[in-house]
Write a structure and sequence with these properties.
Helix content of chain B: 40-55%
Structural class of chain A: mainly alpha
CATH superfamily of the largest domain in chain B: Periplasmic binding protein-like II
Strand content of chain B: 15-25%
CATH topology of the largest domain in chain B: D-Maltodextrin-Binding Protein, domain 2
Radius of gyration of chain A: 22 Å
Chains: A mainly alpha (258), B alpha/beta (339), C mainly alpha (274)
Strand content of chain A: under 5%
Radius of gyration of chain B: 21 Å
Number of helices of chain A: 12
Order of helices and strands of chain A: HHHHHHHHHHHH
Shape of chain A: globular
CATH class of the largest domain in chain B: Alpha Beta
CATH superfamily of chain A: MetI-like
Order of helices and strands of chain B: HEHEHEHEHEEHHEHEHEEHHEHHEH
CATH class of chain A: Mainly Alpha
Number of domains of chain B: 2
Helix content of chain A: over 70%
Distance between the termini of chain B: 55 Å
Structural class of chain B: alpha/beta
Shape of chain B: globular
Oligomer: heterotrimer
Largest interface: A-C, 79 and 77 residues
C-alpha cells in the first residue's frame, strides 16, 4: 500500500477515535454559557467551576476510595491466589480459575442489580460496602491474570534454592518472589485503578442518597446542566487517567505486563 | 508513595464517616432546580435543625420504585412525589399518616392541599399547571393537537408515559381530538402513528430543559415548575395557552412508614409549608405555593400557577384513575409508540 | 511446582470464596427469579411473558443487530488500520499504537458525551451539513440508532485494532509483497493470506467488541434515550420504573447467554489454532 494511503487511513481512524475527545477539551474552554464547538471565546471558568460543585467532591472522594482500596483488596486476595495457581498442583485449579474470572463475563449492570437485591437488602449492608465489594470482585480477575503472567516469567527454582539455603517458605516469598513481581503488581494496581475509577454499569444500581460514584454523578449532572462544565470535568478525568498510565509506562514499562 | 496515598485516602474516608455521625434527614426530591432549593430551603433548614440533609433526586416514578424496593428498611424519611405515585405507595401500606396537629402551617394551606389522598396520607405542597413550552420565534401553538401536527414533525418531544406529565399530555391530546379525556387508547394509537416524528420521550423535566436549550426540540409539554429553566434561557421560549386549556396537578409530601426519623421529618415538612419558605420558593419561580397566605408580585405570579382561579381552571386527572389505568396505558404505549 | 496441596488451597480459596459468595451467589439468585412462577415452582413463564411483548422482542433484536453491525464494521476498519500500523517503521508504530490504546483509558462517560457536542443540532456535523447547503435545516442525529451505532463503534474499535495488530505481527514481513509481485490482487492477498493468519485475532477482537456493545449502558442511554432502547437500558427501566424483577432477570439471562456463547466460540477457535 502506498505511504499516502497508509497515512490517510491512520489519520481518519485516529480522528474518529481521538477527535471527539479533543472537541470535548475545547468545548470546556468556552467562555459562553452553552456547550458549543467551536467555543465562544476562551476561558478557564468551566474548568474552575468543576471544583465548586459539591456533589463532585463527594463522589470523587468515593470513587478514589473505591479505586484505591478496592484494588488493594483485590491484590490482597489475588496475589496469593495467583501464586497458588502458578506454583501448586491444586485440585480443582480450573474451577477456581473459572470462578475468579467470572466477573469479566457477567455484564456489570447485572452485577449491580444482583448485589443490590440479594446482598444489600437482605443483609442490610451499606451501599458503600456493596460498592467496595463489587469493585474488588470486578478488579480481582485482572489482578490474578496480570500477577500470574509475571509469576510465569519467574523461575520457581529460585524459591526452592532460597528454601534450601535456609529461608522459610514465607521468607522465600517475601524476599525472592515479591521483589521480582513488583512491576506486575504495580501494573495490576494501575489497571485495576483505571477500571474501577471509570466503572459505570455495576455502580448504576448501587447508588443511594448522597452515595454515588463520580461517573454516575456525572451522568445525572449531564442531564440537568447544559453548561460546558461537564466537558471540563470529562477532560480533567481523562488527563488524570492518561497521566497515570503514561507515568507508569515511563517509570515501569507498564505495557510489558498487560 | 503508595503507602502515604493509601493512608491519606483512608483518613479522608474516616473524616467523611465522622461527619455523617451528625443527625441526618434523608429526603427524596425532584431533580430540577436543586441550586435554588438549596438556597431557599436546604441551607436555612440545616442551620435551624443543626442536622444534615441527605438528598436523593430523580423523577417521581423512579423514586417511588426505590421506596418500594427498600420498604423493609426505609432509606428515605420524607419524599415529595406526584399525588398518584403517593397514592400507589399508600395503597401498599408503605406510608404513615401525617398528623396535622404537628404542622403549625397546616391551616394555611388551600383546602385541596390538606388531605388530597384521604386518611392524611399526604399533604400537597405545590400546584402546577402543565402546558406546552415552545420557541416563539419558530412556531405558534394554539392547541394541544399541534404537538402531532406537521409543523412540529421531527422537532417535538413528549413526556414518557411512565412519568407524571405523560398521562396529562394524553388527556389533553384526547380532549383536542374531541374526546372527554378519559379514554386514551385512541390517543396512544395517534401518538404511535407519529412516533417517527417525535425526537424522544423524556422522563425528567430537567432532561427536557436541556434538550430544548440544546435546540434538539422546539416544543414539548412540561409542568410549570420547570419554567424558570426556560425563562432564564437566552433562547425565546414561550408558555402556550392552548384552546383546550392547561392540564395540571399537585405534588405532595409523604412520610415513609416506620422510618424512625419522624421528628426531623415533621420539622422540615412544617418549615417547607411555612409562608416564609413557600414565598421564597415561589419568588425563585419554581414551585407555586400551596400555602394560601403567600403573596407575590404580579410579575412573579405571571410565571407561576398562582391563585385559586387559575388552580380551579386546570384539567386534572384523578390519582385513582391514573393508578387504575397505568399498566394498560404502558402496555399499549410500549406496543404502539416505542415499538 | 509445590506439592503441599492444603497450603496451596489456603492461598487460593479466599479469592475463590470471595467471588463465589458476594458475586456468583447474588447473580445466581437473580437469574433464578425468572425460572419460578408465583408459587416458586419451576417455570418458564417469565421468559414466555417477556417474549410475548413486541417491544421486548424488538429491543432484543435491535441489541443483537447493533452488536453484530458494530463488530463487523470494526473488523473492516480494524483490518485497514492494523495493516497500516504493522507496516509502519518501528519508531512511529509504537506512537500510533499508543494513540489507539489511549481512548481505552478515558472514562466512557466522557467519550460518549463528546458525541452530544458533535451530533447535536447545533453540533459540528450539522454545522458542516447546513454550511455546505446539503440540507436547509439541521438533521436529527441524536436519539437514533445511527447515533448509538457511532458511539459504540468509537468505544470499542480500539479493542479490535489491538487484537488484529498483535496477530498480524506474526505474519512474516515479506509474504504480502511476495504475493503482490507474483500477481495476486489485494483481495486475493487478504482472503488467501491475511485472513487465515489473523483469524484468531479477528475472533478475539470480534468477541470483545460484540460483548462490549451488548453490555454498554451509557452509550444507548445518552445517545439513544427512551426511543432507541437496548437490552441494558430496558433492564434499567424494568427495575427503576416498574419494579419488574422477573423481566430484569430474563434480560440478565439473555445478556449472559449471549456473552457466554461469544466467549465459548472464542475459546473454541483459539484452541483449534493451538
Amino acid at each position: 500500500m502506498s505511504r499516502l494511503a497508509t497515512w490517510l487511513i491512520l489519520a481518519a481512524t485516529l480522528t474518529f477515535l481521538i477527535g471527539p475527545f479533543l472537541i470535548v477539551i475545547f468545548a470546556g474552554l468556552s467562555a459562553g454559557e452553552a456547550l458549543a464547538f467551536p467555543p465562544q471565546g476562551l476561558s478557564l471558568k468551566w474548568y474552575a467551576k468543576v471544583f465548586t460543585v459539591e456533589s463532585f467532591r463527594a463522589s470523587f472522594a468515593l470513587s478514589m476510595f473505591l479505586a484505591v482500596f478496592g484494588t488493594l483488596a483485590a491484590l490482597l486476595i489475588g496475589i496469593p491466589a495467583a501464586y497458588a495457581l502458578n506454583r501448586y498442583d491444586l485440585p480443582g485449579a480450573e474451577t477456581i480459575r473459572t470462578i475468579v474470572a467470572a466477573p469479566i463475563i457477567v455484564p456489570g449492570i447485572i452485577v449491580g442489580l444482583a448485589l443490590l437485591r440479594y446482598f444489600v437488602v437482605p443483609l442490610n449492608v451499606t451501599i458503600t460496602l456493596a460498592l467496595f465489594v463489587t469493585h474488588t470482585a470486578l478488579v480481582l480477575p485482572y489482578a490474578v491474570r496480570v500477577v500470574s503472567s509475571s509469576l510465569n516469567n519467574l523461575r520457581a527454582d529460585m524459591e526452592e534454592a532460597a528454601v534450601i539455603l535456609g529461608c522459610t517458605r514465607l521468607q522465600a516469598f517475601t524476599k525472592v518472589v515479591l521483589p521480582n513481581i513488583r512491576g506486575g503488581i504495580l501494573a495490576a494496581f494501575i489497571l485495576g485503578f483505571v477500571a474501577s475509577f471509570n466503572e459505570v454499569p455495576a455502580s448504576l444500581f448501587l447508588s443511594g442518597p448522597g452515595v454515588r460514584t463520580l461517573p454516575i454523578d456525572m451522568l445525572s449532572y449531564m442531564e440537568i446542566t447544559f453548561d460546558p462544565s461537564v466537558a471540563a470535568l470529562s477532560a480533567l478525568l481523562a488527563f488524570m487517567s492518561v497521566a497515570i498510565v503514561f507515568l507508569a509506562e515511563r517509570l515501569l514499562g507498564f505495557s510489558r505486563y498487560v | 508513595m503508595t503507602k502515604s496515598l493509601a493512608a491519606l485516602t483512608f483518613s479522608a474516608a474516616l473524616v467523611a464517616t465522622a461527619a455523617a455521625a451528625q443527625e441526618t434527614l434523608t429526603i427524596s426530591v425532584y431533580s430540577f432546580a436543586q441550586d435554588a432549593y438549596k438556597e431557599a430551603l436546604y441551607d436555612p433548614f440545616e442551620e435551624i435543625c443543626g442536622c444534615e440533609l441527605v438528598i436523593e433526586t430523580g423523577n417521581s416514578v423512579e423514586r417511588m420504585a426505590k421506596v418500594e424496593a427498600n420498604a423493609a428498611d426505609p432509606v428515605i424519611d420524607l419524599a415529595v412525589i406526584s399525588a398518584h405515585d403517593a397514592l400507589s405507595l399508600a395503597e401498599k401500606g408503605l406510608l404513615q399518616p401525617i398528623d396535622p396537629s404537628r404542622l403549625s402551617n397546616f391551616d394555611k394551606l388551600y383546602p385541596a392541599a390538606r388531605d388530597p389522598l384521604g386518611d392524611n396520607m399526604a399533604v400537597g405542597y405545590t400546584f402546577y399547571a402543565s402546558s406546552i413550552v415552545y420557541r416563539e420565534d419558530l412556531i405558534d401553538i394554539d392547541s394541544w393537537a399541534d404537538l402531532l401536527g406537521d409543523d412540529l414533525a421531527g422537532n417535538v418531544a413528549l413526556p414518557n408515559i411512565t412519568g407524571t406529565q405523560g398521562p396529562l399530555t394524553l388527556m389533553m391530546l384526547d380532549k383536542a381530538a374531541g374526546g372527554d379525556g378519559s379514554d386514551f387508547s385512541g390517543t396512544i394509537t395517534a401518538v404511535g402513528e407519529e412516533a417517527d416524528d417525535i425526537v424522544t420521550f423524556y422522563s425528567r423535566s430537567s432532561e427536557l430543559a436541556q434538550l430544548m436549550n440544546q435546540e434538539e426540540v422546539i416544543a414539548a409539554p412540561v409542568g410549570r415548575f420547570a419554567w424558570s429553566r426556560f425563562k432564564s434561557s437566552p433562547l425565546p421560549f414561550a408558555w402556550a395557552e392552548p384552546a383546550e386549556g392547561q392540564a395540571g396537578g399537585m405534588n405532595v409530601m409523604i412520610l415513609t412508614a416506620d422510618n424512625g426519623n419522624e421528628e426531623l421529618a415533621y420539622q422540615l415538612m412544617d418549615y417547607w409549608l411555612s409562608t416564609e419558605v413557600q414565598t421564597r420558593i415561589a419568588e425563585a419561580l419554581i414551585d407555586s405555593p400551596a400555602n394560601a397566605e403567600v403573596v407575590v408580585s404580579d410579575e412573579v405570579a405571571e410565571n407561576l400557577t398562582y391563585g385559586a382561579d387559575l388552580i380551579n381552571s386546570l384539567n386534572i386527572l384523578a390519582p385513582d384513575a391514573i393508578i387504575a389505568n397505568r399498566n394498560a396505558w404502558v402496555e399499549q404505549w410500549n406496543a404502539e409508540v416505542i415499538r | 511446582m509445590f506439592l503441599n496441596r492444603s497450603e496451596g488451597l489456603a492461598l487460593a480459596l479466599p479469592a475463590a470464596l470471595f467471588t463465589f459468595l458476594v458475586f456468583l451467589v447474588p447473580v445466581g439468585i437473580l437469574l433464578s427469579v425468572a425460572f419460578q412462577n408465583e408459587d416458586g415452582a419451576l417455570s418458564l413463564r417469565g421468559y414466555l411473558d417477556f417474549f410475548a411483548q413486541p417491544l421486548n422482542r424488538a429491543v432484543f433484536l435491535r441489541t443483537l443487530k447493533l452488536g453484530v453491525l458494530v463488530a463487523l464494521t470494526s473488523a473492516v476498519i480494524g483490518y485497514l488500520a492494523a495493516f497500516c500500523i504493522v507496516n509502519l517503521p518501528p519508531a512511529s508504530r509504537g506512537r500510533i499504537f499508543g494513540l489507539v490504546v489511549l481512548p481505552l483509558m478515558i472514562s466512557p462517560v466522557a467519550r460518549t458525551y463528546a458525541w452530544i457536542v458533535i451530533l447535536g443540532r447545533t453540533g459540528i456535523v450539522n454545522d458542516v451539513v447546513v454550511g455546505l447547503g446539503l440540507s436547509d435545516t439541521p438533521l436529527r442525529l441524536l436519539f437514533t440508532e445511527t447515533a448509538v451505532f457511532i458511539g459504540l463503534l468509537q468505544l470499542f474499535l480500539p479493542l479490535m485494532i489491538i487484537s488484529l495488530v498483535s496477530s498480524m505481527e506474526n505474519i512474516p514481513k515479506d509474504v504480502v509483497p511476495a504475493a503482490r509481485v507474483l500477481g495476486a490482487s489485494w483481495l486475493q492477498v487478504f482472503v488467501r493470506i491475511i485472513l487465515p493468519l489473523t483469524k484468531e485475532g479477528l475472533v478475539i477482537g470480534g468477541t470483545l467488541v460484540f460483548t462490549g456493545a451488548l453490555t454498554a449502558y451509557i452509550t444507548p442511554a445518552i445517545l439513544g434515550g427512551s426511543k432507541v432502547l437496548m437490552l441494558e437500558t430496558l433492564l434499567y427501566q424494568k427495575v427503576n420504573v416498574s419494579n419488574d424483577f422477573v423481566s430484569a432477570s430474563v434480560i440478565a439471562m439473555i445478556l449472559i447467554v449471549m456473552c457466554f456463547s461469544a466467549n465459548l466460540a472464542l475459546k473454541r477457535v483459539a484452541s483449534v489454532r493451538r
